[in-house]
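User: Once you have settled down, look closely at the record that follows, taking as long as you need, and be ready to discuss the fold:
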Amino acid sequence: MEDRLKEVLKVLSKLIERTQKLKYRPQYKEGVYAFLSYDLVNSTEFKEKNDNWPELFERFYDHIQKKLTPYKFVIWKHIGDEVLSYKRLSEIEDLYTLLPDAYNVLISVIDELESEMKKDNYEHKENVSVKACLWIAKMDSLNREDYDNVFVETLKGEKYTWEEQITPEKIVKRNTGYDSKAEYILIDMDFLGPEIDLGFRISKFAEKRRLVVDAKLALILYNLKDDIHLYYKKKDYNYNIVNCLKIVSYEKLKGAVGGKIYPILWYENDWSKFRDSLTYDEPYKSDIIKNIIFRNILDDSFENSEEKLKALDKIFQEIGIKKKVDKLENKIYNL
């Protein structure tokens, strides 16, 4: 028992160390960013039934980081069991691959965890899964006033406020660790703003094995559907964004878009396999899945799905965010 406790404490120590490293965040540049969240589902019950839960959670964090790296996503921070990451879009093609990449990481991580839980004989493993959320936002360059409450730490461990000694040239522009050539390290940096808040709001409507996608991103991708189709056709892959995105609900978002009703979209590589991916009781436990099944959303024709995506433009106009969406779209076109 004592050896087991030491092993658990060792794993927890590693998790704490990883979190401490993440406090050294970058100074972000102006541009369009994609934000991607992966979160464990039903983790509380799992922790109660398995004393060695930290081992599996460490694997989850490691799998996420390993699988996101090829897609140039950077870990932003951890919030509980949730891993948040970001990627600055440098060219419009970066947008084309966002959804398939995010979805493939989701399913791949779930498969890895399920295999490991089966091998290690965890209890209540059938309830643990992963959900994901993807959104984009235009971030402006940070001005000096944005640093008023930011502390920086010298390599010697001394701390100063921005107002005391710090200049932009001395800020480390790396996501983790120290830069031997830099004099100062920026800590407690964060992405902030209503667009970031919106992402957190819609993430509440993701469920196990599901990727929720912000409606603004969905509309922009729809408007680029022909270019995206051609991009994948050159790679011998028949891909149409209209077949993969569905509006599954309309929800009131507290503290976002004026509290108005907002479209919730899910992404699937192949919606024809959706029913087979469900447990028998999901349509009765989840209002969104119940809506999908019993309102025949799965049976929408291509034309009907396209009309619903096209209607997002009118919805944004009525919500009062159409100009903001247009600015974001123009910024993307000029990447």
